[in-house]
């Protein structure tokens, strides 16, 4: 398998409590495996509060719904050995 790298990393975001916020990370190859999103070192799953998706095969997105003060912290996207944080 080709080594998937991060072409465009996460950007820091400022958001108001109760709003949604979306993070995007572009990778070099479609259908990347071994992908993980974390918030404050806790792995995130796709559910009603965290929407995890892939657009156009290479753009991985994480939307945190109705954020609260507890959501303050570092968001990390990892693909293989490569990590981007915001």
Structure write-up:
This protein has no helices and eight strands. It has a single domain (6-85), classed as Immunoglobulins (Immunoglobulin-like). The radius of gyration is 13 Å and the shape is elongated. A hairpin with a 2-residue loop joins strand 3 (35-39) and strand 4. It has 86 residues and is an all-beta fold. The strands form two sheets. The chain has a four-stranded antiparallel beta sheet with strand order 1-2-6-5, with no helix packed on it. Residues 2-86 form the Ig-like domain. Keywords: Cytoplasm, Disulfide bond, Phosphoprotein.
Offer a quick outline of the entry.
By secondary structure, the protein is mainly beta. It is 0% helix and 44% strand.
Q: What multimeric state do the chains show?
A: single chain
Helix vs. strand class: mainly beta
Helix content range of the residues, please?
Answer: under 10%
Indicate the CATH class. Answer: Mainly Beta
Mean pLDDT: 95
* Rg for CA atoms: 13 Å
Strand count, sense and barrel status of the largest sheet are: 4 strands, antiparallel
Low-confidence stretches: none
How many domains in all?
Answer: 1
Based on the coordinates given, report the CATH architecture: Sandwich
The side-by-side strand order for the widest beta sheet comes to 1-2-6-5
- How many strand units? 8
Return the CATH topology: Immunoglobulin-like
Distance between the termini: 28 Å
Domain Ig-like: 2-86
Protein name: OBSCN protein
Keywords: Cytoplasm, Disulfide bond, Phosphoprotein
Subcellular location: Cytoplasm
């Amino acid at each position: 398998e080709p080594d998937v790298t991060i072409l465009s990393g996460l950007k820091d975001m400022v958001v108001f409590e109760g709003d949604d916020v979306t993070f995007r990370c572009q990778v070099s190859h479609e259908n990347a495996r071994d992908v993980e999103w974390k918030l404050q070192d806790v792995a995130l799953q796709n559910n009603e509060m965290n929407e995890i998706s892939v657009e156009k095969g290479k753009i991985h997105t994480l939307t945190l719904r109705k954020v609260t003060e507890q959501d303050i912290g570092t968001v990390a996207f990892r693909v293989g050995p490569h990590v981007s944080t915001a």
